[in-house]
Write a structure and sequence with these properties.
- The chain is α/β, with parallel strands linked by helices and 373 residues long.
- Helices cover 42% and strands 17% of the residues.
- The chain is built from 15 helices and 14 strands.
- The strands form 2 sheets. It has an 8-stranded mixed β-sheet with strand order 3-4-2-1-5-6-7-8, sandwiched between helices. Strands 11-10-9-12-13-14 form a 6-stranded parallel β-sheet, sandwiched between helices.
Length: 373
């Protein structure tokens, strides 16, 4: 079975949670006889084809990206249709308005499905213009997958556009992470932190990550707080740390996969203070659960509270509340028994819900059901 994944950006361009989900779907379905390719846009698509362990990546040029919506040219349609002709199934990843146009270009009988990662939250004006086409795509799509029951229940768009029988819930899973390379685990030495003695937040530094709340909370925490990753909010966050006098904040910058593993393995707990619905799932929470780390996250009505279950794998608090976040961090810092209990609960949730094997089997079965017999 041959599957073409379609999303606006993919490795080797800068990473993000959705790219990581696509990578893990490709790896997890391979054991079920699925051969994967990824069609994407890139500002520098040279070479056009990139062979990666999980898939061949085919890239067309992104000519512009208004409101983070990469747009391609007529050449991108030609490349897309060539890859779609190779595939048995085309797997779209939403949101990306350009995919609606690519979907319209597909032959009518081509098997397809869409994974709905997130509502369009911030771009209200552009979202209003796009809404008719978006609703058409969602209503016409044979099957739509959501990563958590929380998001399926709370999304007004899904509730209004998708018939219940067309909706599938498949939690996003991750391939078990290998032990870090000894040469890169020295990141703890470089940052001058000790295993078990710091809090960790990691991911792309975006507006909805709530890291401003973490910085305001950190000043009252008697432990280092490491923020790993890069992104558009980096300079603002550094300025806020300086302004608030949060001298225990450590900005680690972009880290490698081995460095990420070392940081996750050594942290006291994982903090994920995203405060807007743009954070639809929180794949970094699954990474922390995989490593058996207690978590702190915010209740925003999305999949974050499905991954981190309050009182079982960690603590869930209201968003944008520095005092409550500081209290939760202090509680985990001083109560070792609770930290151990939540860490074990996090690992159990990973094994029960978020392994790549479970996700791969579910997607492979869904793919098979969409191919005409």
């Amino acid at each position: 079975m041959r599957v073409l994944h379609v999303y606006r950006t993919y490795f080797p361009d800068p990473p993000g949670g959705m790219q990581e989900v696509i990578r893990n779907i490709a790896l997890a379905t391979r054991d079920h006889g699925v051969e994967t390719r990824v069609f994407t846009l890139s500002p520098t698509p040279h070479p056009v084809e990139v062979d990666r362990p999980e898939a061949k990546v085919v890239r067309a040029r992104s000519w512009m990206a208004p409101a983070s919506c990469d747009l391609g040219s007529l050449e991108s349609f030609r490349l897309f249709l060539a890859q779609a002709a190779w595939a048995d199934i085309v797997h779209f990843h939403f949101p990306w308005p350009f995919l609606d146009l690519l979907n319209l270009a597909l032959p009518r009988g081509k098997p397809r499905l869409l994974t709905y990662h997130s509502d369009i939250v911030r771009q209200r004006f552009l979202g209003a213009l796009y809404a008719p086409l978006m609703r058409y795509t969602l209503r016409a799509m044979p099957r739509i997958v959501v990563g958590s029951p929380n998001y399926a229940a709370s999304s007004k768009i899904l509730q209004s556009c998708v018939a219940p029988e067309k909706l599938s819930i498949i939690p996003f899973g991750l391939v078990e992470r290998a032990a870090p390379n000894q040469n890169t685990s020295t990141i703890l030495q470089r940052l001058n932190i000790s295993a078990g003695g710091y809090f960790l937040a990691l991911g792309v530094l975006r507006y909805y990550k709530g890291l401003h709340t973490l910085i305001r909370a950190a000043k009252s925490i008697d432990a280092p707080v490491v923020i790993a990753g890069s992104g558009s909010e980096g300079d603002n966050l550094r300025a806020l740390a300086k302004e608030t006098g949060a001298t225990n904040i450590i900005f680690a910058g972009q880290v490698s996969e081995d460095e990420k593993t070392a940081l996750l393995g050594g942290c006291k707990a994982f903090v994920f203070p995203s405060h807007l619905r743009s954070e639809a799932f929180g794949i970094a929470l699954v990474e922390a659960a995989m490593m058996g780390k207690p978590m702190i996250s915010c209740e925003i009505g999305t999949g974050t509270s499905f991954v981190n279950k309050d009182g079982e794998s960690g603590i869930v608090i209201p968003p944008e509340n520095p005092s409550l976040l500081a209290a939760a961090m202090s509680r985990l810092l001083t109560d070792n028994d609770l930290t151990t209990q939540y860490g074990a609960g996090a690992r159990a949730r990973y094994e029960n819900l978020f392994t790549a094997q479970k996700m791969g089997a579910s997607y492979a079965s869904l793919y098979q059901s969409l191919i005409p017999r």
